[in-house]
Structure prediction request, 281 residues.
Amino acid sequence: MSTADSKSRGFLGNFANVDQANPAELVGRLDTMHALEFFRSYKRETFALMQLGAAASAADVGCGTGEDARQMVELVGESGLVVGFDISEAMLKEARSRHDAATANLKFIQSPAHELKAASASFDAIRADRVLTHVPDTMAALREMVRVVKPGGRVVVSEPDMLGCWVNNAHHATSTRILQAIAHSCERPFAARELYHHFLDAGLVDVRLLLRPVALTDPQSADNILRFGAAIETMIEKGKLDAQEARSWLADFEERRRAGRFLGGATIFIVAGGKPAGDDR
Prediction:
């Protein structure tokens, strides 16, 4: 799916263009994800992999509403520093409204992932969560993360395997087309599968790959995140899906919702590594 299609109503690809899409709707999607225990669980793993301690400096790339950056403040303490970077003015406005009054050592800076507004070797650790899927050049973004981390510092990235997302539905072929359309609305739907070797190519050491599967039985949460109806409407408008196929798929989805028989899932790839101690990039 083209970049223009990624701005279509309902698609996850809109996270690459928040300020040109519907910021309030995308903030709502983030809040839905933050409320789910699975998301909170794997996020805690990413924090642990950063190896943050008191007085550490840390960064969150693509910080969105700042919820994760606020959690990181708890790990670095009052003498530490956390910086959240995001390209979206709307997301940063929301982040500041939620967190500016809570702590003095949390800052938010507007900056694209491939050109962070920070000096080289600024941070003890840096992370990005569900961000590189939405940037055109994941390797450029990763190299920039490595640049701003101190020698010996930690880099952690977590991404969903967009091409592996699934939902159970009697109309399997239609399900595949819908979920593939949602996946390909993202700039790099295969970013998760590239991460491990990107870390190696970036010169990081002690690289670890963790896979965390998730199964959702709550159809409302899945729909709040993926917005099936809006995505399907856009597919119909663009001639990507027949209206009758869509009605049949949605009818099965609604029946499973009523019967408590919905099931969907995805896998999160988490990759962590260290910048070599003598690396002065």
